[in-house]
Amino acid sequence: MITFNAESLKQKGTLEWYYGNEVEVPASKGYIFQPGKPIFEETTIYLNIKNSLVKQQNKFDRVFVIKPESDDNINADIFAQADIENSLSYEFSAINIENDFGG
User: Fold this and answer.
1) Does the pLDDT value for residue 62 go beyond 70?
2) Can you give the pLDDT at residue 30?
3) Other residues' Cβ atoms within 10 Å of the Cβ of residue 96
4) Environment class of residue 70 by beta-carbon count within 10 Å: exposed (0-12), middle (13-18) or buried (19+)?
5) 26-43, pLDDT tens digit by residue?
6) pTM surpassing 0.90?
7) Angstrom distance (rounded) from CA 14 to CA 24
8) Structural domain containing residue 59
9) Number of domains in the chain
10) Is the dihedral of CA 14, 11, 94, 96 positive or negative?
């Protein structure tokens, strides 16, 4: 099972998560997302940040492609870093990645 922890993004807006090819309706809304089932094959998770100050476009803010090599549990925190030149642009990364073996 995979857990996405994006609590560090609370000041950016409301988060919507989309799972696999189901991109019309969010699979979940909130800062913690678990797909709800083990991922045994390549799977795509989409993250959209809704913010009333930014005009919404028909695109996702971040796309995660999960390519499991085993059935280990994986956990990570999502970290946002603001662009120095553009305060509305952010780079996202997964940090504190852990699996069943501790790292």
Assistant:
1) yes
2) 92
3) 11
4) exposed
5) 999 999 988 877 777 888
6) no
7) 17
8) 2-99
9) 1
10) negative
